[in-house]
Amino acid sequence: MPVHYQVSGATAVEISASVEAGVRAGELGAGAPLPAVRALAQTLGVSPATVAKAYQALRQRGVIETAGRNGTRVRHRPPVAASRSARRPPVPPGVLDLSTGESDRRLLPALGPHLAALAAENASPIGYADAGVLPEFAERARERLAADGIEAPAITATSGALDGIDRLLAAHLRPGDPVAVEDPGWANALDLIAALGLRAVPVPVDDDGPTEGGLRAALASGAKAVLVTTRAQNPTGAAVSADRAAALRAVLRAHPDVLLVEDDHAGELASVPLHSLAGATRTWAFVRSVSKPYGPDLRVAAVAGDEATVARVAGRMRTGAGWVSTLLQHLVLRLWQDQEVAAAVAAAGESYDRRREGLRAALGVRGRTGINVWVPVPDETRAVTTLRDLGYAVAPGALYRQSSPPAVRITVSRLAEADIAPLATAVVRAAGGVGSGIFSA
User: Are 307 and 154 in contact (CB under 8 A)?
Assistant: First the structure.
């Protein structure tokens, strides 16, 4: 694939800055290939070592990635601000967009009545000294987690799940440290790990969560942290079962100093019981965001864990953003206490289950929870292109994979139940026939 953007510079700093400028302008979009080191060195009239140093700096900051024979490319979500139009490829008119990974906006609770109630309270503005985690927010979060079997010695709030994970990893690890992460796994987490200068160590996933052997191998290789999605794993829909949780806890107990981070982003939407790993190591955190059940603009997550771990997160929050808006915390409290909202969230979860199960059964693939279906395909590019031509936009599995086999991710939130059969027919055609449905080796 030709590279149209002309990288410039005579030093490693100038070359890396030129690549960043291309990313900011949208001329080097997600997945855009970069010239080989020797080819770019020859074009710029510099030594290969200079280009290699520039690429190394960009890799360490998570802007680019090197993928073997596929060469060097811009990461899916490089930590460089770009124009909004450059962030995501446009979906052609008339194509049903099943690539977003977002909730169905029609099923999100209405915030207007609760915002109006907050305004009517006419509470006095708070100052810096009074800001922070509201005691009532922490107490209510503690009660909700306790109902799922999570006994939290300490709780704080962060601006969403990824913000919490960011602060946890940054507070405990140093650049170059390995992190055991699910493969396939959440693309945003993989990008965050790269941006922090950490190294992702893949742990295979099956329908019951990370495999025991995969976790054991990752820890044996020196992983200093483990990131696990408890339910509704993105992209596969896996959920940690009771037996798997017991096996993983046994593996983790042999590594008591490893940081364990659990992401339960689906929360109240999940239709399967929670089987947590919390407390299997001395240093642990359980993160539950409100974005999926209540709306992505509610940038709030409860972070529970041992006292030292939570104190580190709260401390980093205080020296940076300061705190999660108390207005948002009050709004989330109202949503948590509204029985009509609870019923609406439960109904949304049932709707996602019907759509996911319908598509999963039609294709013969796995995935017990969540809003995504992971479909193995022989060739991702062919499958994505063919489905687009047939009227469906799906996400290529390369965004979520490290070493697991090719696949595509289909989000069911915009899928009507009447669309399931024609979509399944289109997927089979695009994939050349769906295989066993085992989405990870």
Answer: yes
